[in-house]
Design brief:
The protein is an alpha+beta fold. It is built from 14 helices and 26 strands. Strand 5 and strand 6 form a beta hairpin. The protein is globular and about 85 Å long.
Length: about 600
């Protein structure tokens, strides 16, 4: 599978049918609802979907848009494979059950009497998601073994946060924001509704077109308008619901419920119909109160201008982001000053670049500034061969070229390289898939990846093998383990860089040198609020130290959030002093 997706049931088949043509209002189905249909446009290159329409229901006098579960999944049929989905309706019990009768059996139940949503296990939401089309996230590695704790049923209590589940036209109706949060957002895809139309965006996209599409999704008659009071209330209710269930650092920060956090003046400001006031309140909550690097605001509510942006400079960004950014730019400047090369530009000025690989005696230093997986278009030329530019976009090919450079240096210089240092001092993270690929250059041994989900309490352990020589054999000896590997870490070595540092220290694949890494154990989750405000948060998916596997349960500890101490301490003033770095390595042997 390209995007890794980590009970025998009596089924009554229900055919998913095409949506009817648009009709503006007037139709009154069960319960006195009115409905209309809005266009849906997919803007992701990872999933192939045709533009369609999505029937939307409203209760009289309310601004809350509801969508039928089946209608919603069918409109996104390029994201979801609905061919194995079957449904059962019990009007007497007030329950709508959706069953995945394919390879991954699972059950979804919406109870409109209790206003709860339940799944047999949380992975139900991933069980019928298509592979990504443009990017092959698992191109170079394969899972060897897999272990998982039992996955219990999970119930989401919508009623406790003021949300109803409705029933009409033979299906359960959910507020569209809830449907998006549960079904789409865990796959890094989000559906936006701007009051006029629906858009779908894949949050892993970093192209120019993606940012242009984001502005288009925000363009509507809401821009520059006062929000309704109901919109503010449902937005705050949704915010509390989403953070209580999906914010991974809730326990780590000692938060029992976000209803205890969103109080007083902050709650008053979030409820303000003035976009300037409630957008400023988002800065207070996400940047200054939560104040951690995986949580960062993206774009304001739809009631601001379509091209509006949050000002996260200085104190607005929070103390953690401010200090992290200052250190990042300081280390980057130190690196350029110490080991950079000045290059002339056409206008007569100069720029400084840092070589991907440099050499000092018997040691090579590889500077890896992030973990990325390129799209097929970025990696391959039209004839199917790997492009010369592939290392710019994909960590696997970056590492492959770096190792080839080391071999060429040995041949031309007559020097035998003994040590390879992977410099992660300005690496702020990125794709875990790319991180696993990088580890494959260090070792042929299985690479452990232990993760857990705080919503369900489930833990998963998988061992990965990487095919570094591209021959299709994941078990052959193709790693560059003839070298002694070192990982140079700093407080900027965050997220996936922190995870790599954790894994090599636990397994002995490499020796960690430098300062304590920057932490960051949760994957990123993109949260879209009813008013359109978009933010990244630390998700409920965490990585752990392998000692947790021995316990067999998630105990509530967040085991690598605060970073990893080095095996060999080295002050940052020596990070880019290659002679001092090599002397420290030799002294420790």
């Amino acid at each position: 599978m390209k995007k890794k997706i980590i009970c025998a049931i009596l089924a009554l088949a229900l055919c998913f049918t095409a949506l009817a043509a648009c009709a503006d209002g007037g139709d009154t189905p069960d319960g006195g609802l009115t409905k209309t249909a809005y266009t849906f446009s997919n803007r992701s290159q990872e999933y192939i979907m045709e533009d369609t329409s999505l029937t939307t229901y409203y209760k009289d006098g309310s601004c809350v848009p509801y969508v039928g579960v089946e209608d919603f999944l069918e409109a996104l049929s390029g994201l979801f494979d609905t061919s194995h989905l079957q449904s059962i309706v019990s009007e007497e019990e007030g329950k709508y059950t959706l069953i995945n009768a394919g390879e991954s059996l699972g059950v979804f139940c919406a109870d409109w009497e209790e206003d709860t949503v339940s799944v047999s296990d949380f992975s139900f939401f991933f069980s019928f998601v298509y592979d990504t089309a443009a990017t092959d996230f698992t191109a170079h590695y394969d899972g060897l073994t897999y272990w998982s704790t039992p996955s219990p049923a999970v119930t989401f209590d919508l009623g406790a946060y003021g949300f109803d589940i409705l029933y009409a036209d033979g299906q359960a109706l959910l507020p569209v924001w809830i449907a998006n949060l549960l079904f789409c957002a865990p796959s890094i895809y989000n559906v936006y509704f701007n009051g006029e139309e629906y858009f779908g965006l894949d949050q892993s996209d970093n192209t120019t077109a993606f940012y242009e599409d984001r502005v288009e999704t925000r363009t509507s008659f809401w821009n520059g308008q006062q929000s309704s009071q109901e919109m503010r209330e449902v937005t705050v209710n949704f915010l509390e619901f989403a953070l209580d269930y999906f914010y991974g650092l809730k326990g780590y920060k000692g938060i029992e419920t976000f209803k205890d956090v969103i109080t007083g003046e902050l709650r008053k400001e979030l409820l303000s119909t003035d976009p300037a006031v409630h957008n400023a309140a988002y800065i207070k909550l996400f940047q200054q109160t939560l104040n951690e690097l995986h949580t960062s605001l993206i774009s304001p509510s739809f009631y601001a201008a379509a091209d509006a942006a949050f000002d996260l400079s200085g104190e607005n960004g929070g103390t953690v982001m401010r200090d992290f950014s200052a250190l990042y730019y300081q280390l980057l400047a130190d690196m350029r000053a110490s080991v950079g090369n000045s290059e002339p530009l056409p206008d007569g000025s100069t720029t400084t670049s840092v070589p991907a690989v440099r050499f000092e005696g018997d040691t090579a230093v590889i500077v890896l500034s992030g973990f990325t997986v390129g799209t097929d278009e970025q990696i391959y030329d039209e004839d199917g061969t790997v492009s010369e530019n592939a290392p710019q976009y994909d960590t696997f090919y970056f590492m492959l070229r770096a190792m080839q450079s080391i071999e060429e240096y040995e041949q031309t210089s007559g020097t035998t390289i003994q040590n390879v240092v992977l410099d992660l001092t300005v690496n702020t993270g990125g794709s875990i898939a790319a991180m696993i690929n990088a580890l494959g250059f260090m070792t042929d041994k299985p690479i452990p990846y232990l993760s857990g989900n705080l919503i369900s309490g489930e833990m998963n352990l998988e061992y990965m093998l990487v095919d570094t020589d591209g021959d299709g054999d994941y078990r052959d000896a193709d790693a560059y383990d003839m070298y002694d590997w070192y990982v140079l870490s700093s407080p900027v070595s965050f997220s996936a860089a922190n995870l790599l540092t954790t894994i090599v220290k636990e397994t002995g694949f490499a020796t960690v040198i430098g300062e304590q890494s920057g932490g960051g154990t949760c994957s990123v989750f993109t949260l879209v609020l009813p008013d359109g405000m978009t933010t990244n948060i630390s998700s409920a998916n965490l990585v752990f130290l392998s000692s947790v596997y021995e316990q067999g349960v998630i105990t509530g500890g967040n085991f690598v959030e605060s970073g990893v101490t080095p095996d060999i301490p080295l002050g940052r003033e020596y990070f880019y002093d290659d002679a001092a770095l090599v002397a420290t390595i030799h002294a420790a042997k």
